Amino acid sequence: MYFDADSPVLHRIVDDLADKGWSQQDAFLPDALIAQLATECRARDAAGKLAAAAIGRGEGQAVREGIRGDRIQWIEPGQSAACDLYLGALDALRLQINRALFLGLEDFEGHFALYPPGAFYQKHLDRFRDDDRRAISAVLYLNHDWPVTQGGELRMYFADERTLDLSPLASRLVVFLSGEFPHEVLPASHDRLSLTGWFRRRGDALL
Ligand code: OGA
Ligand code: MN
């Protein structure tokens, strides 16, 4: 387990969420664990486990490459030691957010994502029209040796019309309120690997 409740990085994320609704933390997890997660992402892809990502939920779900071109696989507890350490770290963050901000985050869902060269994800919000349980988004990047010239930035859009481009650097974690920040993924010249997930509130989904 990497974090206890008093871990400074968890406090920084909670403070940022309270102040401005989003947070960026570099070196969130040890390099060796990030390397294991990247290897696992590539192995799952080589085994054909990553599939074209769909947009939306339920009957409205469709694969539309014009909107997002990544391949994903949802992760479950017990699949690998590395994934369990990642899930443990995110659960420590969930508990710290609940303790400090009373958001009542009930669970976490996350997937590996691989964007092949040229793939992107158009500007969007991480909320489904028919399901607003997603409260907070958390993206962890797995790309060692990623010069800025390779592209693949996460572009964040702020209410004052500013934008910010963040490179998908190994062990960088970006956390934001899912319903507040439109964002997009810019195309890259190399495979772009990440673990993307959402903390969800109790389900009063309208399904
Ligand atoms: C997403 C997403 C951002 C990123 O999967 O919804 O916006 O930087 N990902 O990978
Ligand atoms: Mn998103």
What do these coordinates show?
The chain is of the alpha+beta class and 207 residues long. Helices cover 24% and strands 29% of the residues. It has helices at 8-20, 31-46, 81-101; strands at 22-25, 51-52, 71-74, 105-115, 121-124, 134-141, 154-157, 163-166, 173-177, 183-185, 192-201. The strands form 2 sheets. The protein has a 7-stranded antiparallel sheet. α1 crosses α3 (81-101) and α2 packs across α3. The chain is globular, with a radius of gyration of 16 Å. The model has no long low-confidence stretch (mean pLDDT 92). Bound molecules: N-oxalylglycine and manganese (II) ion (MN). Manganese (II) ion binds next to loops.
Number of strands: 11
Distance between the termini: 36 Å
Number of helices, counting only DSSP H or I runs of 4 residues or more: 3
Strand order of the largest sheet: 1-9-6-11-4-3-2
**What is the ordering of alpha helices and beta strands?**
HEHEEHEEEEEEEE
Query: What is the helical fraction, as a range of percent?
Result: 10-25%
What average pLDDT do the residues reach? Answer: 92
Q: Radius of gyration in whole Å, from Cα?
A: 16 Å
Question: How would you sum up the global shape?
Answer: globular
- What oligomerization state is this entry in? single chain
Q: Strand share of the residues? A: 25-35%
Low-confidence stretches: none
Major beta sheet summary: 7 strands, antiparallel
Structural class: alpha+beta
Bound small molecules, deduplicated: N-oxalylglycine, manganese (II) ion
Topology (SSEs and partners):
Layout: H1 8-20, E1 22-25, H2 31-46, E2 51-52, E3 71-74, H3 81-101, E4 105-115, E5 121-124, E6 134-141, E7 154-157, E8 163-166, E9 173-177, E10 183-185, E11 192-201
Antiparallel strand pairs: 1-9, 2-3, 3-4, 4-11, 5-10, 6-9, 6-11, 7-8, 7-10
